[in-house]
Structure formats: structure tokens, C-alpha cells
Write a structure and sequence with these properties.
single chain, 416 residues, 2 domains, three-stranded antiparallel sheet, 8 strands
Length: 416
């Protein structure tokens, strides 16, 4: 058996590109803003998101005390995730759910908010929003753009559609790369000389030539990082494909571990409360760091998450195995009743497949490389949009040319 020839792959690339054009253009445009999510989000509602001590030198409240006070004011709410460290100048942000423990469903009498911002020094609730609900105004602009980016703001169906688009994009990366190679020249003398024009914009160049060169050369220069973004998008949106592939390579998915530990019924109230669980998580993290030869630098974001479906707490902390600037990728899972250690997930160093996933996700989320990489991700997002638009323009031009040739042929065939 032989592989299909170049004309077949041209057709595959054409239809894959046309199918993906809207998805990638939207993802590229919204993704160009997301490296600056925190800054832009705070700018849309500074009175809600920013905070300062009423008096110089005043000590802030403990984050767990802030959570407890919120739950005392709203007894029907659940807050199962809390950051244990803070960002300077920002309000504490808590995400509330309104679940009826008897049914496991959202309560009918829930308020129209799930995101609440609280002053760390006074405990005052500075503002609320229902995450991503653009009808509530500009304070939800960035969450709405984030939802557009990963799910078209259409919930699970949009998430699945973007996952399929990411999978097609991943495969099409290789097809597009193949089509930049000079036909019949692979492995022959002069290959690099014949391939060199594919990396360049012809000068002078206008109109169709410029569009074609932007598409081909832009795709080549961005190809490695586009593949990283495509693969990481599959990991975000299509875990039913990514997880088995990761497992084949020896990887361990922490979300899959939580799903495998699911109880017959959710354990809504564990024996360990959040303060006790925070202490136990820190203790286990220190023990595991010593045993594994890891350092815990003490900076970055530490967090605690309770998972009722599994009855487990997950404690996140920054260790020397982390690559993301905020850390928190080193995860310790332990039983919510006994405190017994259940699993340790390291972002790097334990398994090559997990290290690969950590890096592609950190690159996608602009969590490495400082401000320079954040700027680069913005430019890459805009470049992805340019590639999508130029691909459609090339198709339209060729389609018009084919229609013109058919019209001329039919005109010559008509007897005079």
C-alpha cells in the first residue's frame, strides 16, 4: 500500500482549514487577550476586584476565616475551593455553588451569582457576578471572552465542538507542514535550496501572492508552537481522547484519578474541616517533598479543594517540580475523613508524558517565560487568526479561478 499523493493532501488541508477557520479565528482573537486576563478583568471592575487595608500595617484576615464568614452569611452556599495565599492589592475571590445535598442538583432559589469578591482586611463583600454571564455587564467581559475561547460560550456542546476542532487542527498541522515541502524533492540534492522560498515573503508582493506567502511562511515559522497549542487544546477540551493517549505513554492524569476514586454517594461533609485539611495538606506536602528531594520555596499560590464525589481533599503547592510562575501544580490528595495520603501528582520529573503535558499547558496559558512570553502568546493568537483568514482567501481565489476556467471551457464548447 502507498500513501495518497499530494493532490489528496491538498484537498484534506483545504477542507480541514475551511472547517476550522471560524473556530481558529475566534480562538486566536480571544486568546490574544487571555495572557492579560487578570489585569484586564480587574480593569473592568476595579472597585469589586481591588482591595487595600483600611489602615497601614493592618493584618489581613485568614483566607479560611473569610470563607467561613461567607458561608455563615449564606448558609445554602458551598465553597469547595479556596486559595490559601493572596495576590497583593486584590480582593479575595471565592466561587460558590448552590447544591442541594439531598438531590445533588443546583437549588432553585440560588442567587444570580457564583463569583464573590471579599475585602481581605474587613471581610466585606465588594461585588458579585455569575461567571461569564455577559448580561450582567462589563464586569463579566473577560470571563465571557474566556468561555468563547474554549467552548464558544455554549457549555458542554461547545466544549466538545472545540475539542474536535483541536483534534483536527493537530492532525492538520502535519498535513500543512508536508504541503510546504517542495514536491518530489525530499531526500534529494538541493532540497533545502528549493524549500527556502517557503519560509519567505516574496518582494515585491501584493494581492494573492502576499496572501499565499503569509499563509505558507506564517504557518512554517509558527508551526512548532501551533502544534503545542493544538495538542494542549485537545488536553483541555477532549480528555476522552487525550487521557488514553497519555496513559499509553505512561502518564497519570490527576482528574482521571479523582474520577476513579468516586464514591457511591458524594460525601458532602467530611470529618476534616477546611482548617484541619489545610494543616494536613501542608504536613503531607512537607513529608513528600523531603522524601522526593523537592524544595518548597514558599512563594506562589497554595490552594485547597474538596471533591465531594470522591471524599478527597486536594492540596496544591508550589515546589521545585513546578514550571508555572504561580506554581500550585504539585498536588497532594488525601482522604477527607482520615487524612490518609491517597496520591501525589508532580508536574514534572516523575513521568515524561506528564512533564510534556505540564509544559504544553503552561505555554498555552502563558504561565512561563514572564512578560516576554505573554506578549508572544498575544502575537501568536493574532497570527493564528491571520492564518485562518488567509487560508479562506486563498480558497476563494482558487475557487473563483476554477469557476472562470469552467466558464471559458463551456463558452468554447457552445457552437457558433
Amino acid at each position: 500500500m502507498t500513501l495518497p499523493g499530494r493532490p489528496f493532501w491538498v484537498i484534506v488541508h483545504r477542507w480541514a482549514g475551511l472547517t476550522l477557520a471560524l473556530f481558529l479565528a475566534l480562538a486566536g482573537l480571544t486568546g490574544s487577550l487571555l495572557p492579560w486576563f487578570d489585569e484586564l478583568d480587574a480593569a473592568t471592575a476595579p472597585a469589586m476586584q481591588n482591595a487595600a487595608p483600611p489602615r497601614p500595617g493592618q493584618a489581613p484576615l485568614d483566607p479560611l476565616a473569610v470563607r467561613a464568614a461567607l458561608l455563615a452569611r449564606h448558609p445554602a452556599a458551598r465553597v469547595d475551593f479556596v486559595y490559601l495565599t493572596r495576590e497583593d492589592g486584590r480582593a479575595d475571590r471565592l466561587y460558590a455553588t448552590w447544591i442541594d445535598p439531598q438531590t445533588g442538583l443546583e437549588r432553585a432559589d440560588r442567587p444570580d451569582w457564583d463569583d464573590v469578591f471579599i475585602n481581605p482586611w474587613t471581610g466585606e463583600e465588594q461585588g458579585h457576578r455569575r461567571y461569564g454571564a455577559i448580561r450582567q455587564g462589563v464586569k463579566n467581559l473577560m470571563p465571557f471572552l474566556y468561555q468563547l475561547h474554549f467552548s464558544l460560550a455554549l457549555g458542554p456542546w461547545g466544549l466538545f465542538a472545540m475539542g474536535l476542532a483541536a483534534l483536527v487542527w493537530t492532525l492538520d498541522c502535519f498535513v500543512g507542514f508536508y504541503l510546504t515541502l517542495p514536491p518530489g524533492a525530499l531526500g534529494k540534492a538541493g532540497f533545502l535550496r528549493r524549500w527556502r522560498p517557503s519560509w519567505k515573503l516574496r518582494y515585491p508582493s501584493t494581492g494573492y501572492k502576499l496572501t499565499f506567502d503569509l499563509h505558507r511562511a506564517g504557518g512554517l515559522w509558527l508551526w512548532p508552537i501551533l502544534l503545542v497549542f493544538a495538542l494542549s487544546s485537545v488536553s483541555f477540551n477532549l480528555p476522552q481522547v487525550y487521557r488514553p493517549a497519555l496513559a499509553l505513554l505512561g502518564g497519570q492524569d490527576s482528574e482521571a484519578m479523582l474520577e476513579a476514586a468516586a464514591l457511591p454517594r458524594p460525601r458532602w461533609t467530611p470529618a476534616l474541616d477546611f482548617p484541619a485539611a489545610a494543616r494536613r495538606g501542608a504536613e503531607l506536602a512537607a513529608q513528600e517533598a523531603t522524601r522526593r528531594g523537592l524544595a518548597l520555596p514558599g512563594d506562589g499560590r497554595a490552594w485547597l479543594w474538596y471533591v465531594p464525589s470522591a471524599g478527597l481533599y486536594v492540596y496544591g503547592v508550589k515546589s521545585s517540580a513546578d514550571v508555572a510562575r504561580d506554581g500550585g501544580g504539585t498536588r497532594i490528595a488525601f482522604d477527607g475523613n482520615s487524612g490518609a495520603l491517597r496520591s501525589v501528582t508532580l508536574p514534572t520529573g516523575a513521568r515524561a508524558a506528564d512533564t510534556l503535558t505540564t509544559w504544553i499547558v503552561a505555554l498555552h496559558m502563558a504561565q512561563v517565560g514572564g512578560i516576554a512570553w505573554r506578549i508572544a502568546v498575544t502575537l501568536i493568537g493574532l497570527g493564528t487568526t491571520v492564518l485562518s483568514v488567509t487560508g479562506v482567501l486563498i480558497w476563494l481565489r482558487k475557487r473563483s479561478a476554477r469557476a472562470g476556467r469552467r466558464l471559458k471551457a463551456s463558452t468554447r464548447a457552445v457552437p457558433v
